[in-house]
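Re: the request from the purification team.
They wanted to know what the chain is likely to look like in 3D before they choose a buffer screen. I agreed to run a prediction and write the result into the notebook, where they can find it.
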Amino acid sequence: MDVDDAPDDVLIAGLAAGDQAAARMFVDRFSSRAIGLAYQLLGDRAAAEDVAQEALVRAWRHAGTYDVRRGSASAWLLTIVRNLAIDTLRLRRAVPFDPMTLPIGRLADDEPAAEDEAARHDDASRLRVALGALPVEQRRCLLMAYAGYTAMEVAAIEHIPLGTAKTRIRTGLQKLRLSYLGEPRHEATS
């Protein structure tokens, strides 16, 4: 059988056996998809190419562990790409910070009109007071979520269970809504 026409699982078997033609065809067949997925996740072409290259190297090293019964070769490789891209994103965010020091005053990107400056300042002051009224644990979790951390990342940083992190974020939001906006929380009815 010609390697160019080989099914994906045969290419991976060739990869595991050290067949250079199978390895070249594997890279040719999957590199653009690997780069594309990594780019979608990272938004950085150079980083996407690095992640895709590392994923292809890992696929080559672990080709012997591939099990066709667990999924397609494409899904297997793209899972490796996804995991590496997520690791890359986490490393970008690995710079520790104290969520209590996040600037809250400026929530909009556009320049405020002169007449809106006083209202904006008043809103920022009310928001700071409302945040200050929250228990420290809820405030920390809420500010990390505002900064873009997932609940799972908040749980890891705070050394708490995932459910606890989610509860602190949700409860903090509910208390903030009540004290800042004066709105009672609305429960969904089924």
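For the purification team: Residues 3-92 form a domain with the Rna Polymerase Sigma Factor; Chain: A fold (CATH 1.10.1740.10).
Please add any questions underneath this entry.
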